[in-house]
Each structure stands twice: as structure tokens, then as C-alpha cells.
Amino acid sequence: MGYGISIKLNDANDFTFSAMHNTLTLVSNTDNLIQSIKILLKTGIGEIRTFPNFGIDMPLLLDRTLSNDNIKNAVYNAIIKDPRVASIDKIKISKVDRVLNIAVQLTSTDGTVLDFRDSTPW
Predict the structure, then answer these.
(1) Model confidence band, residue 119 (pLDDT cutoffs 50, 70, 90)
(2) Residue 78, H or E segment
(3) What is the pTM of this model?
């Protein structure tokens, strides 16, 4: 199974354009999987009507009283649905002020071990 190809997004989640080639920049291989996970963790479940199971339960994550174990469980359940992910080996969560830092180590279906890190407003 491949990782697919998508339009590359920048830090502001906008399309990346190559002025040199006058085209949109594409992302593939493991970079596409990492980008997909970033999108997944910033999308509320049910937000995309055509894919109602895509995303994460954002209201649950935004509850400041929620334990790190419950947050890890929500992150795990969201990511493991991706058919390119064989296993999730580690999840680390830390809360700093109003930012939730997520670090995930996963193994793809082709055996590649990937490290993913992202921060989201808390």
C-alpha cells in the first residue's frame, strides 16, 4: 500500500505553490502520511459531512479537566483508523499554558517507523 499524493500545505494550512514551476506543490510518501495525521488531529469528528468518521472528538480534547490518558486514547482512536497505520507505538501528551503538545511514534503498514509532533491550542 502506498502513502498517496496530496497538495502540500504550509504552516497556515494553505496550499503551497511553486512559482518556479507555476504549479501546486505535492507531497507524497511518508510526508503525505504525516500531513494527513496533522489534518486529522485538527478536524473535529463529523466536520466533513462526506467523511463523518474522519477527525477527532475536539470538544472532548478541549475539556481542560480531561486526563492525559483520555487524551491519548482519543488521539490513538483517531489515528489508528488510517489504513496506512499498522500500529501506534508511543503517544506523549503535554499541556503548556493553552497549548496541547502531541508526540506520536507509529509504524506504517510497510514497516516504516515515523515520529509525528504537533501542537494545538488548548
Answers:
(1) confident
(2) helix 68-79
(3) 0.83
